[in-house]
Amino acid sequence: MEDDDRFAHALATDAADRLVRAQDQAIAGGRGGWWLEDHGDSLAHDYLVDELRRARPTDGLLSEEGHDDGDRVGMRRAWIVDPLDGSNGFGSGNAEWAVHVGLAVDGEALVGAVAVPGIGITASTHDVPEVPDRTNRRPVVITGRSRIRSDGQFLAGALDADLTACSSAGVKAVLVAIGKADVYVHDAPLYEWDVCAPVAVALAAGLDACGTDGSTIQFNKDTPVVNSLVICRPEFTADVVHALQSRSSMAAQRDDH
């Protein structure tokens, strides 16, 4: 597995470097927006798929930008990649994007790399981030901008925490791993390519990664969707899961009436 860790780290880093160059060149030439998003998606996808097919030809492969023929299902090893997570940010010229390279073995996210050029890091199971000790500051909940008024505000209130948001599941997971946030929550479905590499990195760093009901997340399923995601420091996990499950129970009771 050590070779896989190194390989994933190198792939994510190299793909991110290519994307940075492409972003700089496009913006200097006055191009961005949808064109740059599509260009970045295609560039990173082609690079990652070519390298994975060359170096790991017998493994399964699932990429956000590729056609899923289903052959990966049932394979013990499947690479699950998001060539450009946060493509809107990439197309806008900001730093809220990442490259995800994950490997699921028997459905478990064991290998992962998340390259985030905007903060100058590739967090991976090869180069595991060291989660710093907490200070006496208030906890910080991070979520996507589309989830601020639902997951974010609710959980920040339940934990008496500050709230922040950004694009890219990978960026948010890495911010927890390096101590810039304490809890990342997304109480809605995500695709496996959004989640696999961040979960592998989070677990390797000693963080908890689970569904909002506390369940273990499984990968390489027929339908590659994860129902929900929490990545957080272990001291917050019980309170996070309890708060979110209590909300779900109350919502179910209202629906019954």
Number of domains: 2
What oligomerization state is this entry in? single chain
Q: CATH superfamily name of the largest domain? A: Fructose-1,6-Bisphosphatase, subunit A, domain 1
Spatially, the strands of the biggest sheet line up as 1-2-3-4-5
Unreliable residue stretches: none
Notable characteristics:
Fructose-1,6-Bisphosphatase, Chain A, domain 1; 257 residues; D-Maltodextrin-Binding Protein, domain 2; alpha/beta; globular; single chain
Question: How does the SSE layout of this entry go?
Answer:
Layout: H1 2-28, H2 33-55, E1 60-63, E2 77-85, H3 87-92, E3 98-105, E4 108-116, E5 121-124, E6 140-143, H4 148-159, E7 162-165, H5 169-177, E8 183-186, E9 190-191, H6 192-204, E10 208-210, E11 225-226, E12 229-232, H7 234-256
Parallel strand pairs: 1-2, 6-7, 6-8
Antiparallel strand pairs: 2-3, 3-4, 4-5, 8-12, 9-11, 10-12
Folded structure, characterized:
This protein is α/β, with parallel strands linked by helices and 257 residues long. It folds into 2 domains: 2-124, Fructose-1,6-Bisphosphatase, subunit A, domain 1 (Fructose-1,6-Bisphosphatase, Chain A, domain 1); 140-256, D-Maltodextrin-Binding Protein, domain 2, CATH 3.40.190. It has 7 helices and 12 strands. The strands form 3 sheets. A 5-stranded mixed beta sheet has the order 1-2-3-4-5. A 5-stranded mixed beta sheet has the order 7-6-8-12-10, sandwiched between helices. The protein has a two-stranded antiparallel sheet with strand order 9-11. A hairpin with a 2-residue loop joins strand 3 and strand 4 (108-116). Helix 1 (2-28) runs antiparallel to helix 2, helix 4 (148-159) packs across helix 7 and helix 5 (169-177) packs parallel to helix 6 (192-204). The longest helix is centred in the N-terminal third of the chain and has 27 residues, at 2-28. It is globular and about 45 Å long. The chain starts with a helix and ends with a helix. The mean pLDDT is 93.
